[in-house]
Design brief:
The complex is a heterodimer of chains A (799) and B (158). Chain A is built from 20 helices and 28 strands. Chain A is α+β, with helices and mostly antiparallel strands and 799 residues long. In chain A, α7 packs across α8, α15 packs parallel to α16 and α18 crosses α19. Chain B folds into two domains: 76 residues, Beta-grasp domain (Ubiquitin-like (UB roll), Roll), CATH 3.10.20.30; 68 residues, [2Fe-2S]-binding domain (DNA polymerase, domain 1), CATH 1.10.150.120. Chain B has 158 residues and is of the alpha+beta class. The chains are: A alpha+beta (799), B alpha+beta (158). Chains A and B meet through α1 and α18 of A and α2, α3, α4 and α5 of B.
Chain lengths: 799, 158
């Protein structure tokens, strides 16, 4: 196809509504007679509920109803978990607490009132009699005896899993050195700027329920909520209006979504719940939450022989949609960008009295990358080999792809050394090391950190996914020549309304402005999987491309019929089918609308004018296909095609991030000197959007490295419950990011794209922590736990 | 119990009776239907609710509607003039200063304020000026570039 738009820095078509304040997030949708819901949530991490008294709340002004666990026990099914692992223990998690609460924020009662203030007032009038129970907070303690959260399970271990290939004992035994390190991946809160929000409206006459939710997975939610509340799936419509960020936190089916749907059916009115930030940090999934022990074996020349990672995964009190699956992604990515003959992961996944962990941007892969990259730094330090060199010595060469890892993956394509070389050239690596040496001699503490990451994207082949890994697209050309793309992906900031339009406009040879991309409405869009796992472009974009190719096969036949020509003598170029001989003379570029708005003759569409023509635009063919008076035999009227694309493999983006910092001896504060990143996400559809994804990802990574941590105290109280205590990075706290790219197409899909949504979050953390560790190397520091705060640095420098 | 207030919002005078505890942001969103101003926290940290009150950028989630009585309020919906985008709005579009768009109205108002106070801020001044507004998508870099774009535009430097 001609690439007029693909690969270009195209401004987003989403933006005008957003910059004018005219977009609609869930809370911006106003329906008459809407009732508002507020939740009574547990103030204890673990307690028995002896009684709940709702009588005062029910008498409060504006209150319509109060629901507790008893009301829903037989009515609404448990919150679903899609992670199927052998021997997995699954607690029965109901949408309102039954006899016990298991974490601070656990919903106990739903108060329904005529306005949000009245609902919130009445929450304080619900009296809950708790009897507190022993609390399990620390994941390693949870694994090693102590109080048991679910007595029926006997212990707190949800599952154990061992995976990997190669003889790990022999591999570590054959090493010249084996290095060990305990590594903590602290709990993080995703903090989408828009919290969750739900609006449910039941139409009692039709028996239809419409659910507006701020989610990444409208179709999966439709299926799950239908099952939970017992409504036929074809009576439930899920709409995701504008979604204010997700980062995995909205890749889920939550208690509130099912409960609000059910309440709307009880009261026959629209009901709305808008999450507060406090609720968001208490009761929206957390990410990470692993404590692990890595052992890496190497030869004296730095060649790796084996890697073992024994990890305790802090699942929280129950499973959300993918909770138990996240540590398995860590296991898959433990080979990093390196040839490691034997790898073993041993997961001990535990229940604790905390909110569930689940997929947060990166979802298990940042943990793997951090483990491997920190381990490579340990090897470099131990052997006195430069951190870049020890990595280079263990890369597979480009000719070794597809590259099989000892974690069982086939990496699709890669050129890791070029990305490293380019990043080193960008930052002036050799000179920087010289400066570092000089600075150290002067007593200044400069550190350089490197991460040469690989990640796994385009989730994924259905074989490897809990509920389908394909994506869908319908493309149609309307009678007036406009193009409508319906995607099963559910973008929420990534910009696919633009990037998918770029693909469609190029492939159809039409103007970008003629294309509209529709998503996030199960009443309109064919079934889809949604947006997560850096999959939307690689899987969903490919579905768009192939659907268009199908559509064009039909258009080609119609064109041949209309031009009274053999199909084989026609070619498609610049949006136009033309007879080969006339091709060179055929006009290209933007076509006029077939039926200009406001100029259509009353009643009937104009007949396509083909007399004397040697070429036809695809839009003219669309009109003919709809009028359908003269189509080839056995041709369906209309011009649309649907395709469900099943990827054959994941894709594996990669890159090198290098970070240089200087530590302030007096304060322990950090100053970023440089941050360069060379990323390779395969073919690029819109470089501006790719840069945006990388910036955002890197800064979330930086948040983990330096600031962010969900902290529960020993009673299981959440002490970082607001944005005053949970430290999201601010504009003044980050380095200026210098980005460059290499472009190694993926052979997995015809677009050659890999995915970029999570790359920054996966690649950056080890570079930042590595830089601090390197700065503190004169003090014998080999590793630091995140978030690395000035206090910790200051203590080391001033010990 | 309710108090009568008169507030000029985006050039239109609104007279309403409101509960004294009604937050300004809820007045704008729920009484006037101006839903472009968002709520991202309840502790005045995120800045999604930033509006102008008598020309000053203010977080409308930590102010009561009655406190704005007699004031002139400008929200994101009132920033463009005669259909022409404000230079900051244009900058956000040109430089990809937004992804999910949720922080954007507050971020644009805060950015406009930075330029009103200092039409030619340095990059560091822009970053510090934006410290009261959180964005989780962009990593701020394109936002800073958007403000730089707008700065060039308003100061006539191209």
């Amino acid at each position: 196809m001609a690439t007029k738009y693909v690969g270009q820095r195209i401004k987003r078509t989403e933006d005008p509504r957003l910059i004018k304040g005219l977009a609609h997030y869930v809370d911006d949708i106003r329906l008459p007679d809407t009732l508002h819901v507020a939740f009574v949530r547990s103030v204890y991490a673990h307690a028995r509920i002896n009684s709940i008294d709702t009588s005062a709340a029910l008498k409060a002004p504006g209150v319509v109803a109060v629901y507790t666990g008893k009301d829903i026990a037989e009515k609404i099914g448990p919150v679903p978990c899609a992670g199927a692992l052998p021997g997995l223990k699954v607690p029965d998690y109901r949408v309102l607490a039954q006899d016990k609460v298991y974490f601070v924020g656990h919903p106990i009662a739903a108060v329904v009132a005529t306005d949000a203030y009245a609902a919130r007032d009445a929450v304080d009038l619900v009296s809950v009699d708790y009897e507190d129970l022993p609390v399990v907070v620390d994941v390693e303690a949870a694994a090693n005896g102590g109080p048991v959260i679910y007595e029926t399970f006997g212990d707190n271990i949800a599952y154990k899993l061992t995976a990997g290939e190669g003889d790990i004992e022999a591999a570590l035994g054959s090493a010249d050195r084996v290095l060990k390190q305990r590594i903590v991946h602290q709990r993080l809160a995703p903090i989408a700027m828009e919290g969750r929000g739900v609006l449910a409206r039941y139409f009692p006459g039709e028996g239809d329920l419409t659910l507006w939710s701020s989610t990444q997975i409208p179709h999966l939610m439709r299926t799950q909520v239908a099952l939970m509340i017992g409504i036929a799936e074809n009576k439930l419509r899920v709409i995701t209006p504008e979604v204010g960020g997700g980062f995995g936190s909205k890749l889920n089916v939550y208690a509130e979504e099912a409960l609000l749907s059910w309440i709307s059916m009880q009261l026959n009115k629209p009901v709305k719940w808008i999450e507060t930030r406090r609720e968001n940090i208490q009761a929206t999934i957390h990410g990470r939450g692993q404590v692990g022990y890595v052992e890496i074996g190497c030869k004296n020349d730095g060649t790796l022989t084996g890697l073992r990672y024994n990890v305790f995964a802090d699942l929280g009190a129950y499973h959300q949609l993918l909770t138990p699956a996240i540590p398995t992604l860590t296991g898959l990515m433990l080979s990093g960008a390196y040839k490691i003959p034997a790898i073993q992961i041993n997961v001990t996944a535990c229940f604790t009295n905390k909110m569930a962990t689940d997929a947060y941007r990166g979802a298990g892969r940042p943990e793997a990358t951090y483990v491997v990259e920190r381990a490579l730094d340990l090897v470099a330090a131990e052997l006195g080999i430069d951190a870049a060199e020890v990595r280079r010595r263990n890369f597979p060469a480009p000719s070794e792809f597809p590259f099989h890892t000892a974690t069982g993956l086939e990496y699709d394509s890669g050129d890791y050394e070029t990305a490293l070389n380019n990043a080193q050239a960008m930052i002036g690596y050799a000179k920087l090391r010289e400066e570092q040496k000089k600075a150290r001699a002067e007593g200044r503490l400069i550190g350089i950190g490197i991460s040469t990451y690989v990640e796994i994207c385009a989730l994924g082949p259905s074989q490897a996914m809990p509920a389908g890994g394909w994506e869908s697209a319908t493309v149609r050309i309307d009678p007036t020549g406009t193009v409508t793309v319906l995607t099963g992906a559910s973008p929420h900031g990534q910009g696919q309304e633009t990037s998918f339009a770029q693909i469609a406009a190029d492939e159809l040879g039409v103007d970008l402005n003629d294309v509209t991309v529709i998503h996030g409405d199960t009443g309109i869009v064919q079934y889809g999987i949604g947006t997560f796992g850096s999959r939307a472009t690689a899987v969903g974009g490919t579905a768009v491309l192939v659907a268009i190719q199908k559509l064009k096969e039909k258009a080609h036949k119609i064109a041949a019929h209309m031009l009274k020509s053999e199909a084989s003598s026609l070619a498609f170029e610049g949006g136009r089918y033309s007879v080969q001989a006339a091709k060179a003379a055929a006009a290209t570029g933007t076509s006029e609308p077939v039926v200009p708005v406001g100029e259509a003759p009353g009643g009937a569409l104009p007949e396509p004018q083909i007399e004397g023509k040697s070429s036809l635009t695809i839009q003219e063919i669309a009109l003919a296909a709809h009028i359908a008076k003269d189509l080839p035999p056995d041709t369906e009227p209309g011009l649309s095609a649907t395709y469900f694309y099943e990827p054959k493999n994941f894709t594996f983006p990669f890159g090198t991030h290098i970070c240089a910092v200087e530590v302030d001896r007096d304060t322990g504060d950090l100053k970023f000197l440089r941050y360069v990143a060379v990323d390779d996400c395969g073919k690029v559809i819109n470089p501006m959007l790719v840069d945006g994804q990388l910036h955002g990802g890197i800064v979330q990574s930086l948040g983990q490295a330096l600031f962010e941590e969900v902290v529960y105290d020993e009673q299981g109280q959440l002490v970082t419950g607001t944005l005053m205590d949970y430290a999201v990075p601010r504009a003044s706290q980050i380095p200026w990011l210098e980005l460059d790219r290499t472009e190694t197409p993926s052979p997995v899909n015809p677009l050659g794209v890999k995915g970029v949504g999570e790359a920054g979050t996966i690649g950056a953390t080890p570079a930042i922590v590595g830089a601090i560790v390197d700065a503190l190397a004169p003090f014998g520091v080999k590793h630091l736990d995140m978030p690395v705060k000035p206090e910790a640095i200051w203590k080391i420098v001033n010990a | 119990m309710k108090k009568a207030i008169s507030i000029d919002v985006n050039g239109v005078t609104h007279e309403n009776e409101v509960e004294p505890r009604l937050l300004l942001v809820h007045y704008l969103r729920d009484v006037l239907g101006l839903t472009g101003t968002h709520v991202g926290c309840e502790t005045s940290l995120c800045g999604a609710c930033t509006v102008f009150i008598d020309g000053q950028a203010v977080k409308s989630c930590t102010m009561f509607a009655v406190q704005a009585n007699g004031s002139s309020v400008k929200t994101i919906e009132g920033l463009a003039t005669n259909g022409d985008l404000h230079p900051v709005q244009e900058g956000f579009w040109e430089r990809h200063g937004l992804q999910c768009g949720y922080c954007t109205p507050g971020m644009i108002m805060a950015s406009a304020q930075i330029l009103e106070r200092n039409p030619k801020p340095t990059r560091e001044e822009i970053r510090h000026g934006l410290d009261g507004n959180l964005c989780r998508c962009t990593g701020y870099q394109h936002i800073v570039e958007a403000v730089e774009y707008a700065s060039r535009k308003v100061s006539g430097a191209g």
